[in-house]
Fold:
Amino acid sequence: MKTEVVIILKKALDELNFEIKEEEISKFLEIPPTSDMGDYAFPCFFLSSRIKKNPHEIAVEIREKLGNFSTELFEDIQTSGPYINFFINRKELAKNVVNQILTSKDKFGKTDIGKRKKALIEHTSINPNASPHVGRTRNAIIADSIVRIMTFLNFKPEVHYYVNDVSKQIAMLVLAKAENLKFESMLKKYIAISTKVKNSKKAEKQVFDLLYEFENGNKKVSGKFKKITKTCVNGQKKILAELGIHYDFFDYESKYLRNYKGILSKLEATKKLFKDKDKRIIFNLKGTPIENQMKSPVIVLTRSDGTGLYPLRDLLYTIDKMKIAEKNLIVLGEDQKLYFQQIKQILNSINITSPEVVHYSFVLIQKKGKSKKMSTRKGDIVLLKDFLDEVIKKAQKELDKRKTKADAKKIGVGAVKYAILKNNNNKIINFDLEKALNFEGDTGPYILYSYARANSILKKIKNPKNKKIEMLSLEKQELDLVKKLSIFPDIVLNSYKNLNPSLIANYSYQLSKLFNEFYHACPVIKSEQKSFRIALVQAFKHVLGNSLNLLGIDKIDRM
RNA sequence: GGGCUUGUAACUCAGUCUGGAUAGAGUGCUAACCUUCUAAGCUAGAAGUCGCAGGUUCAAAUCCUGCCAAGCCCGCCA
Structure:
């Protein structure tokens, strides 16, 4: 429809001797704030500087040149101040949009951007030392949605989870003899031991000794590291699986232990590697674009006892990842922004490209009226498991109240995911359990409820596959819903380009809201234009269903 | 001290990339609406120095500069 508007505008503007390209016209065309102002608007401000006339006069002149228009395409073309407002044939538009959706169904919005290219996405990668808290889960939820969006756009994603099994954190748990503990008990142990290590030089020395033994092949020590890691990874895997988040590969950091020679000699060749007085190996980042972000522009790669630090192994891991797929993605917390840039610069110095990175901000917790960062070490956290249990309990309570039977778990998980996904990635989330348990308004349950409503209407219809769509009139609520449905493909594309699922989350809410308004204003079953309204409800169900799929939220037919 | 991010209604956010018509939602608050396709809903109302100050522009929440506040990061954690 937009094309037609551009074409007739181009013709009129040519006649008035404005030299302007079609692409430019298309760029200037905007969608008016409300539909009673039309469906497209062309602002004439910018033309007034060219011919020194006020924009309103220009708008009137252009409108005259547009003359009589095809009533098949347009209902009306009006001027309003400096704007020319195009009212397209809305009934035709509505029929077209609905037909298109009912034809493509769950493929509506799909485009072949991925071209079946292999993509590698590394995400979650939580320290294997405890049950994940809500903050850490933000990574997994965002990333999982991105994976779904990329799959929808014909990428072939492969999901990797990097297990930091060579860490001081695990060493501390080894010191605390945690190897036979259950996953649920790990957190308490971890908090206790990290407090101890923090306050004791001797304990800290023991921790580093354990790392040294692990790195130098002590089988007994490495066995303990592996046992603790296994317990934790399995526990984390399980809870994330509850959210419907799965991984194709678990890559272990320990794989890269003692394999430092190759990378170090490559870095040596850049002449940026040096040893400091404590014999630590350090990479000099002076001269890189990020040098002014550090007090001293370096990154330390080994301890003085010769054991490797995390960045050294991360370099090896990243190099491996880059070999696997053409498209590479990593999802990291905002605290890793500089760190990731450092890795990127080191790799750049040996001509290796790095993954695209998605950063997200922290989830803060309310404590004594203040927002605080969640800290596993200090125990200031809301565990995902606890939160999930609460939410599911609440969902069940609501279901009992209504005496309906539905999947409380799906409602709960959907609520959690939506609460995370609706926020822009780099916005800090202030996590408030009470508010997170509210199921009214801009929430996951509201969206699921709208979906269930649509389904409930369709279930009552005997013959929903009436091919002929008849329409007598088009209510405002129907028009608004149709227009929102029609932009779904753009939303998906934008969400992919910005690697930002919140665009789809917000769209889902707005779409649901418009559906609920339609629901109240326009009865379907008793309507004289039943066929159109049924088709519209079906179209809504497809598009909202697609959105929910991309967010990783399970649909439910009843609630 | 430096870098990045954020600052929009009492609270939580959308809109900022790509400048345009009266700045939008939700929660909470005030009033209505369930013998009618699900009231986890709908309608109406009150509520805003778009952090502050300059600048660019016919036009700034949106672009530029400076400042303020919060969060994160800046040498042997990962």
